[in-house]
Structure formats: structure tokens, C-alpha cells
Amino acid sequence: MTRRPLTLLPRQVAYARFVYAALSLFTPRLAASTLGVATSEMTPAAVTWAAVFASREAALGALSLTSEGSEPTARRKALYLNVAVDAIDALSLLALARRHRQTRPLIVAVPAALTSTIIHLQAAQRIGQDPLETGRRTGWAAELADG
């Protein structure tokens, strides 16, 4: 079984962001239901906010993907921006769940936001250490190449 390098996980999250952005843009009621919002409570303003949320998710996904070939400092900043946004999302969703006494955000959205936060944080901390990212073979990659 091959180990998936940590640097590939932010790319997968970026693609998930694009899917959720499209969902929020084209079917905002369905996207809102994943956050625990009843579709009957969706006002025209809420539909507009879903579109704004879609653009934010698409922008974060695009930033993640375009920063892959950037210098380490720029890549790290892009990953930390994802960390900040996802951590704030997790806290906001916790507050939403508490205020409305709902469990759906706690089951679906909060774990997704926290997982994304951890993935991006660990990837940012490993910038320059992953041999697939830097082109150098060190550690386990050097052992595999020598072995």
C-alpha cells in the first residue's frame, strides 16, 4: 500500500471546495441544508449569501491550486489562509448549531471544516520537508530510492 504524500491532500480539498462552490451557486437550498439550515427558512437574501459563499470557496480552491508551484513562503501563506478560514468556519458552525439546537452541523460541516484545517496546517508546517514538493530526496524518500 502506498502512502499518499501530505502535499496532495490540500489539492483534494481544493477540488472539494470547487464542488461545494458549484453546489452553493446552482442549488443553494441543498448546500444550505448541509449546514443544517431548513430549506423553508431560505429567504432570497440567504440565496444571495449562498452565491457569495460559493465565490469564496472557489477563490480558496483556486488559491490552493495555483500556489502549488509557488515559492515556499507564498505556498505557506496560501495554506495558512485556508487554515484561518476553515477554523473560523468551524467556530461559526458550532455557534450556529448551539444557537439553533441542531446536530447536523456538528455531524457534517464542523468535522469537514476541522479536517480541512488540520490538513492545511500540517501541509503548511511541512513546506520544504516533503521531498515530492522540493524535488530533493530526504528521509523516507531517500531510503526508498536507495533501497
Structural notes for this entry:
There is one protein chain. This protein is an all-alpha fold and 147 residues long. The protein has one domain (8-128). It is 76% helix and 0% strand. It has seven helices and no strands. The chain has helices spanning 9-26, 28-34, 44-66, 72-100, 104-125, 131-134, 139-146. Helix 1 (9-26) packs antiparallel against helix 3 (44-66), helix 2 (28-34) crosses helix 3 (44-66) and helix 4 runs antiparallel to helix 5 (104-125). It is globular, with a radius of gyration of 18 Å. It starts with 8 loop residues before the first helix and ends with a helix.
Give the secondary structure arrangement, pairings included.
Blueprint: H1 9-26, H2 28-34, H3 44-66, H4 72-100, H5 104-125, H6 131-134, H7 139-146
Helix pairs in contact: 1-2, 1-3, 2-3, 4-5
Short recap of the structure:
By secondary structure, this protein is an all-alpha fold. It contains seven helices and no strands. The two termini are 17 Å apart.
List keywords for this structure.
globular; 147 residues; mainly alpha
Note the gap between the termini.
Answer: 17 Å
Tally of distinct domains = 1
Helix share bin: over 70%
The radius of gyration computed from the alpha-carbon positions, rounded to a whole number of angstroms, is 18 Å
What's the count of strands? Answer: 0
Strand content: under 5%
Low-confidence stretches are 133-142
Q: What would you call the structural class?
A: mainly alpha
Largest sheet: none
Shape: globular
* Average predicted confidence as pLDDT: 81
Order of helices and strands: HHHHHHH
H/I helix tally: 7
